[in-house]
Design a protein that fits this description.
By secondary structure, the chain is α/β, with parallel strands linked by helices. The strands form five sheets. Strands 19-20-18-21-22-17-23 form a seven-stranded parallel sheet, sandwiched between helices. The protein has a six-stranded mixed sheet with strand order 3-4-2-1-5-6, with helices on one face. It has a six-stranded parallel sheet with strand order 9-8-12-13-7-14, with helices on both faces. β10 and β11 form a beta hairpin. The protein is globular. The structure holds adenosine-5'-triphosphate. Adenosine-5'-triphosphate binds next to α5 and α7.
Length: about 750
């Protein structure tokens, strides 16, 4: 019920102005504290210095939060039946007497703002939405919750329509925005759901799964701060473009202990972004690969069938099969990972070699010390080291997988069928080559579990780190001299920051570097895409199984992705996961969803598309061209949205040529998912690259080819059609698939 009388607006304006005044005061104060701490200089004990750094970090973070809430500081008001009144906003504010002025949206008392309905008013008589531009209140919009006559069924689930529809109608900026002002009640129930256990959020396109997941992260960090601050929250998204799309939502909600990552980046030091055929990715994603990797490791612990001779200057030593077998079975019985079990294997062989050597030197029984000396001498002999390394090599996960993929014989020995070996066979990496794909990251992780640490590597790394420290110290002195900062920061500390010394890292930064990090909560977005091997990796990162899994089974594009949530989760949390649904599409207008629903019919009978919350009056169109390479650019130029974003979604195999044609024919068009894709007025993407994103207008090219391109073609086409917030067009040269026959023919 709109209620924007001039008097009401003026009253709200007055209150909002006092909130901004308070915000300004707090900013000035916090800045003052920060300056004071920094001005203390670089003197004092190490402890003093690190205390000062912690304070400086705290004030800097607080200041960043105070700046992040400038836009839409206050967006709501609750009038309670007891006469009390609460203003709801992006953060909590109190005056100097600790009287609260503004309630953080995540606080329990703010919950009725999102949940109260006429049927269950939760003690609220009126909920007011405040719309602001800058610091000016432009509109107020009320839900009167105590009026007997207000029984409209929609009101029970959908609140503050005017505010919501205003938010949905805005042009897209290429970055996701927060929705704290317009969270709907079915979304709020998910956001505030219990921290423990696995919560699955199933919902069709545009139902707010991503945005709800991000708000849930902010809510959990606020509510369970102590528990989550130390361990952090991991949010997994489908690709790097998507992470750029969502990365600003959380800081604007005031959260920093969150690591955003793709599965391809989960293994530290590797960025798995190389494209590979879906069939190859499907093999690598299958759970059978856990056995394959296990066999590949055991294959590197081979016992040679013939004896091995080791020639030294003075004599020749010989190791026979029996000795190998004994050493190997001891190492295996130790149940340690490969690199750690190596010590057991090597010790046994070295003892045998030392006894042989003693005999050959005519020294018979040796005293313990002499025996140890001789063993040490042998251990450092190059031929001995070479022989031992060949028998049981130290291996990094990368070495293991490169060794496997580059040899059909090894792959076959590890249990892969000939056709699978053909698909996975690779040339070894060239320097600087982007060799790893997303599906490799979970296999590297699996290998790391089975291989364990490399002692020698750790030692070498420590020596290297010491050398680097010296170099960085010299560099730091130079920089501080040059920048004139020498008086507020000492070189030692500056160098430590450059080294990213763990003391100075945020929880998220530390977690990103550590494969064995256990997160306090893990959120998986577009979770339907994860393969069984990827789930194994994700579960390792979350031993407490406190997770939020959001996705849509109907949108599964990856051949190794999920066909049902039970199949995915039962192996880990059978009977311990719960499912919530989102049913309203806030992105895609009804006119587009009619078309998308026909395609959903191809994905599976009986699947239901979510209901759109709005109509635009614009019918989606199709246009047939003789050749998209020449016919695309003129049509795209006509569809460009002033100050908005248009995406051209193309079959994977056509991305290069169509991208080049558009870059040549359309000003400022960008091809591929690089850093510019989100900001450009026109971008060209494949379905996989457009996953999770949205644009004002979308043009899908050659839908028939998208359908044929992968075993999950119908899901891919469904995803492509549902990326638009306003307009949709389809361009094709081959006949239009039947499911798209309801498109109107474009006349021009
Ligand atoms: N309560 C809300 N208020 C305002 N906007 C909303 C609300 N809920 C969702 N939206 C908007 O709807 C759009 C779709 O949301 P989101 O991307 O989270 O959906 P999704 O379910 O993850 O979609 P998909 O599965 O298609 O990727 C976004 O622009 C989001 O900001």
């Amino acid at each position: 019920m709109p209620y924007s009388s001039a008097g009401e607006l003026a009253r709200e304006q007055k209150y909002v102005a006092t909130l901004y005044e308070r915000l300004d005061v707090l900013r000035v104060r916090t800045r003052g504290h920060l300056d004071e701490v920094l001005a203390q200089g670089a003197t004092g004990t190490h402890q003093n210095r690190s205390e000062r750094d912690s304070f400086a970090d705290m004030y800097a973070q607080r200041l960043a939060r105070l700046w992040a809430v400038e836009h839409g500081l206050c967006f709501g008001r609750l009038d309670n039946a007891d006469g009390g009144r609460l203003y709801i906003g992006r953060i909590g504010l109190a005056d100097d007497d600790q009287e609260r002025m503004l309630i953080d949206w995540r606080a329990p008392v703010a919950q009725p703002f999102y949940r109260a309905t006429p049927a269950a008013p939760m003690g609220v008589t009126r909920r007011r939405h405040l719309q602001t531009r800058g610091r000016t209140v432009t509109n107020v919009d009320d839900d009167l919750l105590d009026l007997d006559g207000l029984t409209d069924a929609d009101r029970a689930s959908l609140n503050g329509e005017a505010a919501l529809l205003a938010a949905l109608g805005e042009k897209r900026t290429g970055r996701m925005r927060d929705i704290v002002a317009t969270i709907q009640s079915e979304q709020d129930a998910i956001i505030r759901g219990d921290l423990n256990g696995v919560l699955v959020v199933q919902g069709g396109p545009g139902t707010g799964k991503t945005v709800v997941a991000l708000h849930r992260a902010a809510y959990l960090l606020y509510t369970y701060r102590e528990r989550l601050e130390r361990r952090g929250v991991l949010i997994l998204g489908p690709n790097l473009t998507f992470l750029r799309y969502i990365e600003h939502v959380l800081p604007s909600l005031g959260e920093t202990d969150v690591l955003l990552s793709t599965v391809g980046e989960l293994y530290p030091g590797v960025t798995g972004t190389r494209w590979e055929p879906p069939e190859a990715a499907a093999i690598k994603g299958g759970i059978r690969m856990a056995d394959v990797i296990g066999k590949a490791v055991r294959d590197r612990q081979r016992v040679p069938s013939a004896p091995v001779e080791i020639r030294l200057d003075k004599f020749t030593l010989k190791l026979d099969r029996q000795t190998f077998e004994a050493a190997r079975s001891r190492a295996v019985r130790s149940r340690r990972p490969h690199n750690e079990a190596r010590a057991v294997f090597v010790r046994h062989l070295l003892n045998t070699l030392t006894r042989q050597a003693a005999r050959q030197l005519g020294r018979g029984m040796l005293a313990d010390d002499d025996f140890a000396d001789l063993r040490e001498d042998l251990r450092t002999e190059t031929p001995v080291r070479t022989a031992l390394n060949r028998l049981w090599p130290y291996l990094t996960p990368q070495q293991l997988l490169i060794g496997l993929y580059t040899s059909k014989e090894r792959m076959a020995d590890a249990g892969l069928a000939p056709a699978e070996c053909d698909l996975l066979l690779r040339e070894p990496p060239r320097p600087g080559e982007n060799w790893w794909s997303e599906a490799d990251a979970p296999l590297l992780d699996e290998a790391a579990e089975l291989l364990g640490e490399i002692d020698e590597g750790v030692l070498r790394a420590a020596r290297r780190a010491e050398e680097e420290r010296e170099e960085q110290l010299a560099y730091a002195r130079e920089v501080l001299e040059l920048t004139g900062m020498a008086d507020i920061m000492d070189a030692e500390r500056f160098a430590a920051r450059q080294r990213a010394d763990d003391v100075y890292l945020t929880t998220a930064e530390r977690a990103a570097k550590d494969r064995t990090w256990a997160f306090g909560h893990v959120i998986v977005d577009e979770a339907q895409e994860l393969s069984p091997m990827a789930w194994r990796t994700v579960m390792r990162r979350c031993p407490t199984r406190s997770m939020t899994v959001v996705g849509d089974i109907a949108q599964t594009g990856s051949a190794a992705g999920a066909a049902s949530w039970g199949r995915v989760l039962d192996p880990y949390v059978k009977g311990r996961w719960r499912e919530a649904g989102l049913s309203v599409n806030y992105r895609t207008p009804a006119e587009i969803m009619v078309v998308a629903a026909d395609v959903l019919g191809l994905v599976g009978p009986g699947l239901k598309a979510p209901d759109s919350v709005r109509e635009t009056g614009e019918r989606p169109w199709s246009a047939r061209v003789a050749d998209p390479v020449t016919g695309l650019a003129p049509l795209v130029r006509r569809e460009i949205v002033p100050d908005g974003r248009l995406a051209v979604i193309v079959p994977h195999t056509r991305e290069a040529e169509l991208g080049a044609a558009l870059v040549a024919g359309v000003p400022d068009a960008v091809a591929g998912p690089g850093p510019g894709a989100l900001d450009a007025p026109v971008c060209v993407l494949t379905v996989a690259e457009a996953k999770g994103l949205e644009f004002d207008s979308v043009i899908v090219v050659e839908p028939g080819e998208i359908l044929r391109e992968s075993p999950r073609g119908p899901s891919d086409l469904y995803v492509a059609l549902t990326r638009a917030t306003r307009r949709l067009g389809v361009i094709h040269s081959e006949p239009l698939p039947h499911a798209l026959e309801s498109l109107v023919l474009r006349a021009d």
